[in-house]
Structure formats: structure tokens, C-alpha cells
Amino acid sequence: GQQLNQSPQSMFIQEGEDVSMNCTSSSIFNTWLWYKQDPGEGPVLLIALYKAGELTSNGRLTAQFGITRKDSFLNISASIPSDVGIYFCAGYNFGNEKLTFGTGTRLTIIP
Amino acid sequence: EPEVTQTPSHQVTQMGQEVILRCVPISNHLYFYWYRQILGQKVEFLVSFYNNEISEKSEIFDDQFSVERPDGSNFTLKIRSTKLEDSAMYFCASSERGTGNTEAFFGQGTRLTVV
Description:
The complex is a heterodimer of chains A (111) and B (115). Chain A has 111 residues and is an all-beta fold. Helices cover 0% and strands 54% of the residues of chain A. Chain A is built from no helices and eleven strands. Chain A has strands spanning 4-7, 10-14, 19-25, 31-37, 44-49, 55-58, 61-65, 71-76, 85-92, 100-101, 105-110. In chain A, strands 2, 4, 5, 9, 10 and 11 form a six-stranded mixed beta sheet that branches. A five-stranded antiparallel beta sheet of chain A has the order 1-3-8-7-6, with no helix packed on it. The model of chain A has no long low-confidence stretch (mean pLDDT 94). Chain B is mainly β and 115 residues long. Chain B contains no helices and eleven strands. In chain B, the strands form two sheets. In chain B, strands 2, 4, 5, 6, 9, 10 and 11 form a seven-stranded mixed beta sheet that branches. Chain B has a four-stranded antiparallel beta sheet with strand order 1-3-8-7, with no helix packed on it. In chain B, a hairpin with a 6-residue loop joins β7 and β8. Chain B is globular, with a radius of gyration of 13 Å. The model of chain B has no long low-confidence stretch (mean pLDDT 94). Classes of the chains: A mainly beta (111), B mainly beta (115). Chain A binds chain B through residues 30-31, 37, 40-45, 48, 88, 90, 92, 94, 96-104, and chain B through 4, 31, 33, 35, 41-45, 48, 50, 55-56, 58, 91, 93, 98-100, 103-109.
């Protein structure tokens, strides 16, 4: 099946730092999504990307859909304590009704 | 803001017992899903449901699993005879017009522990 690998697996940063994380796939996706999961909660959608090459922002978050359709990155600028959590990329292909989730990047902010 | 609600939040069951996990999707949504997340791992797709039938299922969703929309508001996942490896968080999700067109909203999950 399709695999989405995220890097890094975990990040330890100080408040105010910028964050960058990646997601790569073994195959093409038509749509890329970035979700955040807080402890004990379900994933919440942050950004959706629909076109290869697309760069989209949502506040301090910026994400890009790679030209090859096999990768995406998410940047968070000027991190704040509530950014702590696990970030998952997810891919979607037309014609089926499922999301394939990545392996996750756990973000921790060091006081 | 409308949300997907799941009950119970935590269920402990003995191996071999049947469990039913319940979900109330967002009221005007037409597509419903179950995903699971084994502790510390990624979220995995189980099944999608539209127009009162399964539209897609993963290899995880074997004969021990079934889904039902019994009364027009609830959406349930039944595991017939639980195994230890069924222990996981189970997330229900719904979307208005399908994942490709509209956002899928996730519930807070049911933590299933099989002992």
C-alpha cells in the first residue's frame, strides 16, 4: 500500500523558533493535507493542498504540495506553546474515500 | 460549532467479547468513516460509509468488523470477538460531500483496551 514517511520523527525547539517538517510518499497523491493531533484528541485539519506546486498559508503555518506530487512540507513560524502536538500529513486520491496518514512528527517546545 | 461525538471515551473489554463503538456524525454530513490509531503509531483507515453502505474498506477491516447506521443519526462500529491487538484509539469522522471535496472532521476518539 501507499506509505507516507515524515521527518523528523520528533523535534525539540524553543518558543519563538521556526519549524520545518517533511512528508514523502512512495506514490502520487492528488491532495495533501496536514493535521495536528493534541493528546487525547482526534486529528484537526490545518491546511489542504490541491494542486502540485501549490503553496498555502494559514496564519503562521505554510505548506507546499511538491511538484512531483510525492512530497509536501509544513513550516510553522515563531512557534508558541500551543503548537505542541503531533503533526500528520495525509494523502488522498480521487476515486476512493480514504486518507492515508503519515508516520507523524512530534513537536515539543522546551521552556 | 458542530462536532463529531463519540461514546464511550474509554472502553475496557475482555478478549473474545463483542464491543460497539458509537458515533454521532455532524448532522448534514453524508460520508462517514472509522479510523484507528494504535498507541504511538499513525492513524489508519478502516472503512468509509455512504448511502447506507460501505464504499471502501481496508485490509484491517475483516469479518470481525461491521458498521451500521441504525437510526439516521448514529454510526456504529462493531467488533465481534475482540483480540488483544484490537486495542487502539478508534476515531469516527464525517464529511459533507466526501474527502475529496470537503473536510473530514474527526471525533475525539474511543480508547479501546482489550484485556
